[in-house]
Specification:
The chain has 452 residues and is of the alpha/beta class. The protein has a 6-stranded parallel sheet with strand order 8-5-3-2-1-11. It has a 6-stranded mixed sheet with strand order 12-16-17-15-14-13. It is 51% helix and 18% strand. It folds into 3 domains: 206 residues, 2-enoyl-CoA Hydratase, Chain A, domain 1 (Alpha-Beta Complex); 125 residues; 72 residues, OB fold (Dihydrolipoamide Acetyltransferase, E2P), CATH 2.40.50.140. α10 runs parallel beside α14. Its main location: membrane. Keywords: Membrane, Signal, Transmembrane, Transmembrane helix. It is a multi-pass membrane protein.
Amino acid sequence: MPQTRSPVLIRRLTHLLLLALACLLAAPSISAAQSPSTVLATRVDGTITPVVADHLRQGLRTAEQDRHAAYVIELDTPGGLLQSTREIVQDFLASEVPVVVYVAPPGARAASAGAYIAMAAHLAAMAPGTHIGAGTPVTGQGEEASDKVVSDAAAFAVSIAEERGRSTRFAEDMVRKGTAVPDQEAVRMDVVDLVAPSRDVLLTELDGRRVIVGPADAPHEVVLRTAGAQVVEHDLGFFGELRQLLASPELAFLFLSIGTLALIYELASPGMGLGGVTGAILLVLGFVALSVLPFNVGGLLLLALAAALFVAEVLTPGVGIFAAGGTVSLVFAGVLLFRGELGVDPAVLWPTAVVVGGGSLLAGRLAWRARRAPATTGHEGLVGREVVVRRVDPRTGTGQVLLEGAWWTARGRDAPIVEGEHVRVVDVEGLDLIVEGAGPEGGRETEQEAGP
């Protein structure tokens, strides 16, 4: 009897040991699977610019390097630059990390460029009360672009929709007809994937969904694990916010134009240096804006030519030829300065050019008058001043006068001076004033000004 039970007991013990060993080996993977995942999140508000494109590209790299479960972009935009939008879409389509675009908060919109970006995401969601669409491209002056540009944008939108399995009909209509739809209708039309009232609810709803990530030549499937995920914020930062604020053609043009005018006024009438400092700061901000925006070298050269003509107006003032030429050059600079759909609004361009041109003309007149005015400082500024002789030394024939808060030695040019006499300064020799009689009236006024 003991001999028959022994093999059975040994087999049971062996099974228990194997089961325990399997549990030990599986423990690390189980704990790893149960560990909370992380999600990288950022917020995009306002116009889509090269600053936003760079920020989102950096976020994708961070999400890939840190192995985040997804990259969530909360979006609220009226649109932006088509070139920047194309760069963002290209990055999304090749991303190794699931990209989720969430149009939020309630009342937000993904209009124009924002619609392209939302449709290019692996998963798109909207908060209640939001809308998406109206992707017709416009020029820098707000006018509808040419048929060629519209057709190109429509093909771009349709290709995005086909790649992500979204409604191609809506993609084309939003470009050609300017169609826009609210959140619930966007879900029914297969424009976006779901509606979620908050980011936490969105992450819970996305958990377990399967998406295809990676470039077209090496796609692979990823299962989202986002329920209860820890959210890591990815912000623009102070300098990013500053660059985004300056990414405006109108601001760039204003800073460069007004900065030039401030330097011209400093050149025309040097003083405390306030104009020079202000002009330098505005020019630096203008060039920072240019570093963000795509610009033409020809427009920049015209801007430099305008500045040179304005300076010439200050140095050699005449009938305003240089000021007029600078104004015309400044207008053409504003028209040609930026590439693509960017442009300076005429409501800003024309008044700025007229103000800067008129300001340079006025600065030239001020400089001309300053050069012709008599000197008011140094020894030359003392000539012509009238004073009263206070004391006279009978041995030398010189007297003492109080002028500009200091005592001076005065000598008569043609005749000795007398104490109490009103005299006028006609020359300065070293530290001595050469004077002549001025009559009682002028001297009395000077005596009151000079003090008792």
